[in-house]
Amino acid sequence: MPSIIEMPELVLENIIEVSDFKAVLTLRQVCRDFRNFIDDLNDSKLPDSKFTKIEIISEKNENKILFDFLDTEDSFNRIEYSGMENSRSFNKKIINLENSNIVDVAIRDLELILKFQKSFLECLSFSFSDFSTEDDSSIRNLPTKLYNMFHVTGRKIKTKKFTVKAHHQFQIMSVLPLADPGTLEFIDLYSLDDDMEVEIDEIAKTEQWKKAKIFRSEFHLLNANVEDICHFSSCALKTSSITARDLDFLKKTYISFSTFEISYFELKNFNENDEISNLWGPASESQWYFRMKDSEDKILRIVIRQDYDIQFDIVKKSEVRNGAIVHNYREN
User: Which of 22, 37, 112, 265 is the S-S candidate for 310 at Cβ 3.0 to 4.6 Å?
Assistant: First the structure.
């Protein structure tokens, strides 16, 4: 009786196409012939992994890389790469990687796994430990090798939300280009260092930034330009200060922005209250109201708090404070 590997290629393709994603990965580890056959298959011949979330984590203290996957049935899978033991663990199977570099192995595995991803992810997430240039950890260069892999293959990950937890700006810029700007809606940046500052210029030049609809950042952003953020329907960020003229620019933009929801700015200082009063008139308990374009019920509310927090949001006409002035919509 012929072995399964001796079956016609079309039969093998049909078997793999209707198999479970994990079953194909397991089959790939059976022998070199299966591995080569599966690796050479066109992406369309592989089953959909149906992942909704992929998270890639580097852990400096334990010298580990973790790939976490969540699918449509809320089934959780993890691949763990240990630098201490130089091993890979998946589905309760541990493989000794001998002299192989665990980052290189992890990158090759990720490239393979992404071939199975047909549907859009809800979230693609990265979390990177803090490595100095002197660290000799085997996983220190994970962000750089991720960038190189995607630069060479040209593959983009179709995801709605993109999240990075980082200590350094280069870690963000290493992986932000991996997200497909055609599907990206939400960029979410978490700071793992309370004092970290990020230059926004380079990030704002990316197609991912330009196409996203929502932006949130825990980093303190430097060189923030209101023209770079006014296209977001929702954003929350930290920056040093903002001028009255910039706030007026945002106000004029938002009152004509039919899908605008909320913008929140956490500032270190703001000393242009007099200039704002000259531009918008007196406030009602630090709040101003402006009618939205082509809407009878939607009102743009602007709040400037004493702790220098500034918020733009949309309220209904019935939510306006009693006695407050609602400014009519003006084009300029």
Answer: 265
CA distance 31 to 278: 76
Indicate the residue type of 242.
I
pTM: predicted TM-score of the whole model, two decimal places: 0.89
Write out the two tokens for 29: 């580890």
Alpha-carbon separation of residue 41 from 119, 152, 230, 269 (angstroms): 18, 19, 44, 58
Which burial class, exposed, middle or buried, applies to 207 when counting CB atoms under 10 A from its CB (0-12, 13-18, 19+)?
Answer: middle
Distance CA 232, CA 259 (A): 9
Domain extent listing, the chain: 1-45, 48-223, 255-332
CA dist., res. 105 & res. 100, Å (int): 7
74: left (phi over 0), alpha (psi -120 to 50) or beta: left
Look-up of token digits 């700015």: 265
Helix, strand, coil percentages (3-state) for the chain, rounded to 5, are: 30, 30, 40
| Torsion 154-158-162-167 (CA) sign | negative
Q: Tens-of-pLDDT digits for all 332 residues of the chain? A: 455 556 666 767 677 777 777 777 777 767 777 777 777 777 777 778 889 999 999 998 888 999 999 988 888 989 999 988 899 998 788 889 888 889 999 998 898 888 888 889 999 999 998 876 556 677 888 999 999 988 888 889 999 999 999 988 899 999 999 999 999 999 999 988 777 888 998 999 999 999 999 999 998 999 889 999 999 999 999 999 999 999 999 999 999 999 999 999 999 999 999 999 999 999 988 999 999 998 889 999 999 998 889 999 999 999 998 889 999 988 66
225's CB contacts (< 8 A; 6+ apart) are 200, 204
